Amino acid sequence: xxxLLISHPCFLDHLTPIGHPERPDRLRAIDRVLEHERxxxxxxxxxxxxxxxxxxxxxxxxxxxxxxxxxxEEGLVRLDADTTLSPGSWEAALRGAGAACQAVDEVVTxxxxxxxxxxxxxxxxxxxxxxxxxxxFNNAAIAARHAQAVHGIGRVAIVDFDVHxxxxxxxxxxxxxxxxxxxxxxxPLYPGSGAASERGEADTIVNVPLSAGxxxxxxxxxxxxxxxxxxxxxxxxxxxISAGFxxxxxxxxxxxxxxxxxxxxITRVLMDVADQHAGGRVVSLLEGxxxxxxxxxxxxxxxxxxxxx
Length: 309
Ligand SMILES: [Zn+2]
Known about the structure:
This protein has helices at 25-34, 52-55, 61-70, 89-108, 139-151, 167-173, 216-234, 260-277, 292-306, and strands at 3-7, 43-46, 77-78, 84-85, 114-117, 156-160, 179-186, 205-210, 238-243, 282-286. It is α/β, with parallel strands linked by helices.
């Protein structure tokens, strides 16, 4: 079987202010590297429009309505210091959620072995009722709930190696024992949450904070000791990766020192867990990554590893 890549041109139409790190060029850099002939074997699909029904499994309708009404017809609207809406943002957000569900559909029905969604804006900072930190809808959360509601999947694990803590995903699944959320991230750093003591009401939140300057060896040990035993015990039936590449040493927003080989490594490790418990089912969703070269190289290592099935 093969690896699926889902994207859509509308993801370039979510605009942010000049100088903002979360910019359309991020996806252009990814598109360019994945055009290379070594990625020829990828199955490619364009992102479907997400449904309000799917989004409403992770966010209240009031949040969906608020974003819809706030989207401008021209110019930019600021939701907070970092998060903006442009005329193209609504469609990008809807298709980002749609692509995440589409990836779940294709992986769960065995059309492909695994899938990577190259979309923006990212999602893991979007809380149940609040857009923040460049994020509008929490795509990983929407995908997890979609897998459960539509495909009858029981236990879903979301593993997040973005340099920032996924406060939004943690918020949405804080009291949900059917979804395990595991995160490595730099602390202290935006958004401030993610201490190891934050464990959720059912002890299914697993936070493994790292310190500025930590490298791949420390990262790998943290994953092996802090996350893998918890995943093994949880036995997820589907693994969703919040694939942020801003823990790369080149990244301007993070202070960790990972290199692309580290992203290939964790991808392989998560695929092994999925092979053991989840029939190999892995859905990966792009989150952060703000140095274009580091982002492109890391995404290439990640997708190349997914393609080893
Ligand atoms: Zn990030």
